[in-house]
Amino acid sequence: MKRLSLQRLSLPWRTATADTGAEPGGLAPIRGVNLGNWLVLEKWMEPALFEGYRAEDEDTLATVAPKDQLAQRIRHHRDTYITERDFREIAACGMNLVRLPVPYTVFESEPPLGGAWRYVDKAMAWARTYHLRVLLDLHTAPGGQNGFDSSGLIGAVTWHKKPQNVEKAITVLEGLAHRYGHDPALFGIEVINEPVSWPVFFSNRKKLVARNPKDKRYSSYVPMSFLRQYYRATYKRLRRYLPDDKAIVFHDGFRFGLWRDFFKRNQMTNVYVDAHVYLSAAERIARVHSPWAYRLFLHWQRRRIRSMQRVVPVLVGEWCVENEWAKNLDPGEMDLDQFDDAQRRRFAHVTRMQLDCFGQAAGWMYWSWKLEPSPHTAPDALWKECWDFRRCLMHGWLPSLHRPPAVHAAPRTASPS
Fold first, then answer.
1. Three-state SS at 30
2. For the whole model, what pTM was predicted?
3. Contacts of 356 (CB under 8 A, 6+ apart)
């Protein structure tokens, strides 16, 4: 295996922070990572978990796989995918927060997916040990809230149409607040991840098809009127358990600009609006792969974030370095070292642009900390490495405050066309 050298870039995390990029009260800007695929499975992040079964999402996997066999697989995954060592390394990389996606089944005990709360307990303890804060993010909802695999149920968006499912989600949030509300490691709770908007829902409806025909017919986007009502209800009920110094975070539902006056009008305190900003998603729309296009897109995002930050703190809860300009660099007559250096400079250049933009916010969280359970096995394509924070640091694609642990990796393969 080739040992990849670790490059430390000159730009530390906090130099990208603008004057507005601080938490209320003058606290340090939030710099964090997501612990994706630990307690909420996403097949693209670790396909081996789904091997042997015709399943593309967590809910289907739990339905088609033998319970005992899958329970054993899930238990091993949870025991090994994220451990205390990860929290130690996250802190060593200069991060101060982890965003922890949890399923709506977090407090259930029934196999194969039950028992996730035990690992949340571990995460909170490890966070206390290494002086990290934790944002608990309700990443799934019964019936599905966006149709993505990250919701646990591809193609289905029926959660908001059934009052019992809405109540279930709020009850789970209350459980999180009651159990962890006074834990010093808790930063706050995010009440739902990525409730889908009309444009996002309809642009993906042919690609993301529900397994259940009834879910396919019944699914629709999450209306703004419902989302406002849900956010008011969750804030009121969570504040019964959460101290004032614990944040409540609301995803923008892919409708960032519509939340400007909502929180002040409803007299909400210590709240954040969460926006997920991916260059790779913008490229799929504009199909222009060049720094000048990225600069225009990020300038627009920068202005939106700066404007919103004046009335409510903004978190960029998910982002990553993936971009076609850096991935598809033509090697020409360069040797491997020259190519790696040129590609590193491209990724680093785009990273600087993104951090300059996100510096207008109260903080950001990278998606994700890791894709593979072991740093000694390389993902099977370059695009996957872009979503692994450890590997991005290792390749020098991200500036860092501290040198990350040494990682051995097999040679990378080309990005799929």
1. strand
2. 0.90
3. 16, 298, 302
